[in-house]
Amino acid sequence: MTAKQPNRRTTIYQVAERAGVSSSTVSRALNGVSKEKSQGSASRAQRIRQIAEQMGYQPNWRARVFAEGKTRSVGLLQPSEDTMFKGVNTQIAAGFVSELYKHKYHVVLMPIGEDQEWQQTFDEQRVDGYAIMQQLDEVEDVCEAIVRHDSPAVLINNTENRNYLPRVLIDDYAGMQLAIRHLTLLGHSQIGLHLGTHSLGHYSVQERLRGFQEAMGFKSGDDSMIWREDDQSIMRHLGRGGSNRPTAVICYSHQEAIPLLYTLSQFGIKVPQDMSVISFNDIEFSEYLNPPLTTMAYDADRVGRVSAQLLLRQINENVDGMERETVTLKQHLIVRGSTGPVPQS
Amino acid sequence: MTAKQPNRRTTIYQVAERAGVSSSTVSRALNGVSKEKSQGSASRAQRIRQIAEQMGYQPNWRARVFAEGKTRSVGLLQPSEDTMFKGVNTQIAAGFVSELYKHKYHVVLMPIGEDQEWQQTFDEQRVDGYAIMQQLDEVEDVCEAIVRHDSPAVLINNTENRNYLPRVLIDDYAGMQLAIRHLTLLGHSQIGLHLGTHSLGHYSVQERLRGFQEAMGFKSGDDSMIWREDDQSIMRHLGRGGSNRPTAVICYSHQEAIPLLYTLSQFGIKVPQDMSVISFNDIEFSEYLNPPLTTMAYDADRVGRVSAQLLLRQINENVDGMERETVTLKQHLIVRGSTGPVPQS
DNA sequence: AGTTAAAGTGCAAGCGATTGCAATTAATAG
DNA sequence: CTATTAATTGCAATCGCTTGCACTTTAACT
């Protein structure tokens, strides 16, 4: 039951005293501010560093942050209600975190809920910048707060109305076109789009939808091949007869594709013989599904890294956020077993 | 090309001046330190709060952190080389983050690599406490650093030799017994354990292994039914004849189970008619696999939340970490389609 | 009303770095 | 060897808040 020792760490002043110089000299020697041109100063700086080392001196992060106003960390904004980092978002986040860590930055997770409690977080200025994950719904409000504080920020595959912030996008529009071309080359003409319950507010949803409607030549009012329902209801579409019976389904993501594959097999519909299935968002296990899933994939790690770089540029080079840069990354097709030629009958 | 405004925020002194009181009074009024028993002081505090509100005052987080030495954030330690938060870890992390956020704490991601660079992070004392994720290999080194700094910490389904820190465990030993009982009740006696490439250093691996060996009555030297190989090699075991041909496989996690299911179907081995498969670590899509996967599951969200609580207790109540508490959570069996009676032949 | 305890207030000292400025020292040029 | 310039150094302010201490005010009793 020993009382917790105050355990005071060695400060810069103690090092200064020991070295017989002032604290500013120590600070500058340790931070490499001086150019150390002269013989004497170089060796003196060397000696200071050595003493600091000996004394086990470690700069106090909190004091430093307070003094220079930089925290060397950034916030990652994501919806709080959702399970954190589903599917491909995990990989984006991994790339993001890893790239930042390489530059000695840390990532602070900041959940954004429907209540406006998160607002306060921005006022606190706990971090030097923000990244907004793609699945975040409250983009408008969040971006407004960010712009109001004039903070560096980057949107990860997301958009807001005012077009204030730089962003990294995935070319979902072109991706959808590639997916459709893959299917049409296989002879499919009746193609459904399974959006699941994803919000139409999401950038990716909008873009994929746009790509779909344009490539398929649908009027934007015609939603008969666009499904936002559960699998059971969708089976009604798939089971119906007639010439416009779908022979292929494009799934918004693995969240739709995996259950769909299961439901299809339950109904005795064979993939790809009777029905082709293609999905966006390649995940680790796509290739081990039954059948292995044909997907539209992108380099999620890279998305994270590029986002990090865009953010760091704003933070360090003091680039004005208004020079809003947009980086767009391509998707590519991974053909596996779930797509095949259109059935003859 | 306007120069960035200094944009000085309102400080506590400005509020104090406006309210005609001292900064300390403002600080105390805003932080609810005073008990406000007297009529006058209550209204005065009220008035101060109102003025602060009007002036758009927000306490400067950095200054506050510096002054009181608490950051109101904790570090989440995880391996850097691995893709962040695979499978069930995502859910644990989600529970952890969410619980902490409820208490106005933030979570800082701290990757731990093989190089010892991360050491410095601990010296910086950037956070008030640490949580160590289950898949982290460098536990010993990390715990040593934590103990050296006398920081609050919690191990999430992980252990270190010295038994220094409180922890939340999942009862993998009992879980394994349950899994085996499920199989033996179905008549299986030849059961294999598919560990994949998971390191034997992991707590979960050790415990499941121990449970397996004990329940099956193996000598610890007998490893013929314990496989640490890829699926192709494992098929040799499964295909072999004789009375000790395995009729069931327990997979360490979905990482092993999903590819195994695929490989089995490639070889024409039917699950569960020819072979039963059971896996640990239930994931979102376990029920949609083909066949739906029987799993050992636990409440990952709860693991995260309890860990957060243990950590917060240490931070706030100043509980000495040496009173190392251990919370153990149970697993439960989810029977789905991948397990069935032992084949007759 | 007077005494006592409790609550509230202001002063000023931290917290531990960074940094502008003036003074000092060293390097370089003439 | 001196004049000039460049590099280095120390002083002291700054960052904005919290908090211990001494003091004043208020509330609660007799």
So what's the oligomer here? homodimer
Task: Please tally the β strands of chain A and state the result.
Answer: 12
| N- to C-terminal distance of chain A | 82 Å
Structural class based on helices, strands and sheet pairing of chain A: alpha/beta
Q: What is the overall shape of chain A?
A: elongated
The string of secondary-structure elements of chain A, in order, is HHHHEHEHEHEEHEHEHEHEEHEE
Q: What portion of residues of chain A is helical?
A: 40-55%
Q: Keyphrases for this structure?
A:
homodimer; 345 residues; alpha/beta; six-stranded parallel beta sheet; six-stranded mixed beta sheet; 12 helices; 15% strand; elongated; disordered N terminus; DNA-binding
Overview of this structure, please?
Two copies of one chain form a homodimer. Chain A is 41% helix and 15% strand. Chain A is an alpha/beta fold. In chain A, strands 2-1-3-4-5-11 form a six-stranded parallel beta sheet. Chain A has a six-stranded mixed beta sheet with strand order 7-6-8-9-10-12, with helices on both faces. In chain A, helix 7 (139-149) links the parallel strand 3 and strand 4. Residues 1-6 of chain A have low confidence and may be disordered. At the A-B interface, helix 4, helix 5, strand 2, helix 6 and helix 11 of A face helix 4, helix 5, strand 2, helix 6 and helix 11 of B. Chain B binds a DNA duplex (30 and 30 nucleotides) through helix 2, helix 3 and helix 4.
